[in-house]
Write a structure and sequence with these properties.
There is one protein chain. The chain is α/β, with parallel strands linked by helices and about 375 residues long. It contains nine helices and ten strands.
Length: about 375
């Protein structure tokens, strides 16, 4: 557009020059020049204004766009609160399971501590009192038995549960077979005719490699729970893998703190012959010796009740359920006392079997005490 305008001015200027005289020639040219320059200046000024106006418009448009356009940083700033809220919610939700687990663990610990506290209030350690009858015959007696009380449902009867064996060094000591110093009348771990016997034997080993002392302790724990549930107090003669109490110490503690004494054993044979109790030998000299003379009938009655209870619960019984044996336990007992053999080294001693045996023994105890 600018070029077209200049061309028109030049043509107009040429026409004016041709028509003018010599005298006015110089003046016309100057005026035309001025006119052309002025027009050019005018055009340039106009274009400059237009350009300026265009710049202003562009600037305004840009400003408007900047005002209406939210910068990315601003977007992030505006989005931050929402993101923070979502993060907080996520944190809150993720911590809920942890908090709930912590609460459950805390509750469980409280219950466990409460149970331990209750157990602590219901238990009592009992050692051998040197003033008790026959206590002086003991050689190993630094250990403690543990008395468990039945609690509110208690019937006032205490059963001494003696897990056979389980005294380290027990076989290195010997004690008198009988309080009067007389010889044994039957053979067992110690042969007939001997006047001293091993304080506590190590016991046999089951065909699966389990020591008898381990099985008797497991049996004692199951029987303890069964008896406590029926209202009996339980005197655990051995409440661990080892107790430093020989057979005399165990018997004397039971004599002075319980209503009946039951020693748990398995026989050393390998025929899976079944359960039986060690009966009092039918020997006049033995039956006339105290404290056997005053208690042997009680021993026999308790033994028969236990065998009946076991039999009624499906336990295999050996022969008539009885075998005569002169035992240290029987020789020093002043309360109903029985060594019960629950099978032999080939017999099952798994948890289910132990539960069945414990129920049978407990039923026998109920029967003996008329419950």
């Amino acid at each position: 557009m600018r070029k077209k305008f200049i061309c028109q001015v030049i043509i107009l200027s040429g026409i004016l020059t041709a028509c003018a005289g010599n005298t006015g020639k110089s003046r016309g040219i100057d005026e035309s020049k001025v006119s052309v320059e002025s027009s050019i200046t005018s055009v340039e000024s106009k274009e400059s204004r237009e350009a300026t106006d265009l710049k202003v418009v562009k600037k305004n448009v840009t400003a408007s766009q900047e005002e209406t356009t939210v910068p990315e940083s601003a977007k992030e700033t505006f989005a931050a609160p929402e993101t923070a809220t979502e993060t907080d919610k996520a944190k809150e939700e993720s911590t809920k399971p942890v908090e709930e687990t912590s609460k459950k663990e805390e509750t469980s610990k409280k219950e466990e501590n409460s149970k331990k506290s209750a157990d602590s209030n219901q238990t009592k350690e009992i050692g051998l009192d040197s003033g008790w009858e026959y206590a002086s015959f003991s050689k190993i007696n630094s250990g403690k038995a543990v008395l468990y009380k039945a609690g509110q449902n208690g019937n006032g009867i205490t059963i001494a549960v003696n897990a056979g064996h389980g005294t380290k060094g027990g076989s290195s000591q010997k004690t008198l077979c009988h309080p009067d110093g007389s010889a044994k009348v039957t053979s067992g771990t110690t042969k007939a005719g001997a006047t001293t016997a091993i304080a506590v034997s190590e016991g046999m080993t089951f065909s699966d490699g389990t020591p008898e002392s381990t099985a008797t302790f497991e049996m004692a724990k199951v029987l303890k729970d069964e008896l406590l549930s029926r209202g009996y107090n339980v005197l655990m003669i051995r409440d661990g893998n080892d107790v430093q109490l020989d057979n005399i110490a165990r018997t004397v503690i039971a004599n002075n703190n319980s209503s009946a004494h039951i020693a748990l054993h398995w026989d050393s044979t390998s025929s899976n012959k079944g359960a039986f109790y060690m009966g009092v030998p039918d020997v006049a000299s033995y039956k006339s010796m105290e404290p056997v003379a005053s208690n042997w009938k009680k021993h026999e009655a308790l033994g028969k009740s236990l065998i009946n209870g076991l039999s009624q619960n499906g336990t295999k019984i050996f022969s008539k359920g009885r075998m005569e044996m002169d035992l240290t336990q029987t020789s020093y007992s002043t309360i109903p006392s029985i060594d019960i053999e629950l099978g032999d080294k080939t017999s099952d001693h798994g948890k289910d079997t132990l539960r069945t045996l414990s129920k049978g023994i407990a039923d026998g105890i109920d029967s003996y005490f008329g419950r």
